Each structure stands twice: as structure tokens, then as C-alpha cells.
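Weekly modeling sync, notes
Attendees: S.R. (lead), two postdocs, one rotation student

Agenda item 3: backlog of single-chain predictions. S.R. asked that every request posted to the team notebook include the full sequence so nobody has to chase files. The rotation student volunteered to paste the first one in as an example of the format we agreed on. Action items at the bottom.

Example entry:
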Amino acid sequence: MQTDNKELKVTLKKYLGQYYRAKIKRKQLEIRLKNFREEMTGTQGVKYSPVPRGQSGSQISSTENAVMRAMEIEERIVKQQAQVQKAMLAVMEFMDFLPIDSVERSILEYRHIDCMSWKRICKEMCMTKTPCFKYYNHGIDELINKSEVVQTLKAMH
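Predicted structure, as returned to the notebook:
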């Protein structure tokens, strides 16, 4: 039972971290798109010819190809944004199992919804790391004791 409980805690923490990971992935895609656009237009002048030279009508110009790649990246960003929203809702649903005014919920929300560092959480809560970690772990324990949470986590495997 103890090993099963440890595995559930690890799974829960991973589940709660999904919003953070989705947010990071979206930011990475946005940075890639920005970098791609800068390469396409060049920060020190145009690096491509806007007018295709000597190409037959069946070939795609480098400009058209670049625009298509930019559109593909933008489409991925939109999909990732939907994942970010879905992940945030999933994490918020779990938070609803904790009392709204509890310290545990505040710390879990700071960590998994606001994506704060432990240093910032400690500052916001006016606590040192040790009590913050204790409240965090107590919140994790409270969530693990909810049958709905356990069912959701077990359904993931």
C-alpha cells in the first residue's frame, strides 16, 4: 500500500505539472516562430528574394515555402494553446477538492497554476521552505485521499 501511495503521489505531481509543461511547450513554439520569421525577413535586410526567379509554375517559391512553414508553426501554437487551456482546467478541477481558503490549496495553486518558483511561493506565503513543503505535501496527501482524484490518476495508466 505504501509503494502504491508513493506511485500515486508521483503520478499526481506529474498530473499537476501538465499545465506548466504545456505552457513551456507553447512558449518554445512561439520563440521558434519568432526566430523563423526573423530568419525569413532577416534582421539586417531581406535574406530571400520576394520575387521567384526562373522557376516554373509547378515549383513552390522559397517565399511560399517559408509562409507555409510559418502557418504550420502558427497552427501548432494554436493547438498547444488549446492543450494549455485543457491542462489548466484539469489542474483547477483537482484544486477544487481542497478547501478554498486552505494554505495547502494556495501553495498548490501558486506552484501548479501560477507556476511560481519555491522561492517566490515562500515569499508570497511569508514562510520558509520547510513549512511550505509540509503544506504542499499535506495538500498532495489530501488529494490522494479523494477517490475521484485516484480514479483519474489510475485511468491515466
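Discussion: group reviewed the output briefly. The first helix runs from residue 2 to 16.
Action items: rotation student to repeat for the remaining queue; S.R. to check formatting next week.
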